[in-house]
Design goal:
single chain; alpha+beta; Aminopeptidase; seven-stranded mixed β-sheet; disordered N terminus
Length: 207
Amino acid sequence: MSTQSTPAPEPEASNLQPGTPEAPSRLRRHTLPASEFRCLTVDHARGVFEIEREAFISVLGTCPLYLDEVKHFLTLCPELSLGWFQEGCLIAFIIGSLWDQERLTQESLTLHRPGGHTAHLHVLAVHHACRHQGKGSTLMRRYLQHLGGQPAVSRAALMCEDRLVPFYQGFGFSPVGPCAITLGPLAFTELQCSMRGHASRRRNSGC
């Protein structure tokens, strides 16, 4: 069972796994961009899941998205994802999908509704070696700019624990009440953000 709660700004993440690009110190700097934001593909699913699993299992005992669900969304709507790569290594990411109702529901955890105008942010995670460096904040700003360049998206929505509400309010999200989705004893607040004013600046982006 998965929960699509949006994590702490910079949760723990796993070591780079086989199939994930090599550590920066082993890469040839003249062949790879030092820092790059671009949409993810299904080929990134394994690396995404390893970062996510390390970040969430110790905190929630589960993952927002399991591997099959990561592959599902990166196949259906890769344009609603954004990865941050440094010298070829994935260090942070956000995965989203479209939703077509006013509020998030249990179905929104696993469905992508192409006719929807709400980008549901399922998960934000940062590699453990890159935590406490402001990367979660930087990625969120870039993601909202990215969404602002997609005409079909009029707002973003997410669910988080109460302690994280102030963090997301800093990006223009406003609480709309308790989320209908719970996980055992855990309850979440739903937040929404209008895309008005979030102009797209997709420089250095492969989306």
